Amino acid sequence: MNKLRWGLIGCGDISRKRVAPAFAELATCELVAVNRARVELAKSFALEFGASRWYADWRELIADKEIDAVYIATPVYLHAEQTIAAAEAGKHVLCEKPLAMNVAECDRMIAACRANGVQFGVAYYRHFYPVVQRAKAIIASGEIGKPVVAQINAFERFNPQPGEDRHWLLEKSKAGGGPMMDFGCHRIEVLMNLFGGIRRTKSLIGRALFDREVEDTSVASFEFASGLQAALTVTHAALESQDTLNIFGSEGSLHIPVLNRGELRVKTAAGERIEQHSPHANIHLPLIEDFALAVLENREPKVGGAIGREVARIEEDVYKK
Questions:
Q1: Which of 73, 169, 200, 297 matches a 20 to 30 Å C-alpha distance to 143?
Q2: What's the rounded Cα separation, in Å, for the pair 21 and 23?
Q3: At what angle do helices 305-320 and 184-195 cross, to 10 degrees?
Q4: CA 169 from chain center: how many Å?
Q5: Rounded to an integer, what distance in angstroms lies between the CA atom of residue 111 and that of residue 295?
Q6: How buried is 173 (Cβ within 10 angstroms: 0-12 exposed, 13-18 middle, 19+ buried)?
Q7: Which domains can be identified in the chain, with CATH numbers?
Q8: Alpha-carbon distance 52 to 135, whole Å?
Q9: pTM greater than 0.70
């Protein structure tokens, strides 16, 4: 096999803007079939992105013998059922984040993939951001000394109305939680990538502005095995958008004003410099490329199910508080 043949379950915004274009750009990938409940939309998506088949029922897609792997881009409450069924059909699985509603579901998904000998990955694409990799290298070099404090703000005004496409993100039974579950999970993965394991979690979960099933604002604090303390603040309620990461060490600091853009400010006693480490124009592409190569090379993907499970464990701790 020199090319991975994909089936895409779910044809929403992420699939249209990032996933399907990545398949088209990568020489290691081919989009064979797509799924969406409204078959006319599945057909138009397939024709737009060069897939030869479309299915209204995702079960028919995973039964397709010409598909090697599936990308699951559906609401989180469907991830476990679809992943397990795909694994049992012999398909490799790359699943959107968060991996599942809880750790128990993650365990079932991981076990199914292992039992059926298929690779399993989760779409924490910030793992591949050059600015995160550069920050990790600077920390390892000792330039800013021992990291002691990290702070992340992730603010996105978001209040969809009933009937709108993304309203499910405000339904607890489908999303599991609010912004901490939806995009806070990405930042938890970034923190663990940079600093290792989290040994203690505290949190505040609330509704600062909107009356809804899930929180609109949350603050979580984490203590890492190294002793570093981190604070993660997420909200749907603030007007101003933020996507910051600040790391303070004993001998200096790192500042990323907008994580998705890649500017890095390094401050030490020797002075200050600004570096630029922009992400790929399609921020999903490096993740999909690594997963395809993992299958073709018979190795584990860099962002596997175990990472997804650990983020889910931390999320469970956050929501217990």
A1: 200
A2: 5
A3: 110
A4: 15
A5: 18
A6: exposed
A7: 4-124+283-303 (3.40.50.720), 130-278 (3.30.360.10)
A8: 42
A9: yes
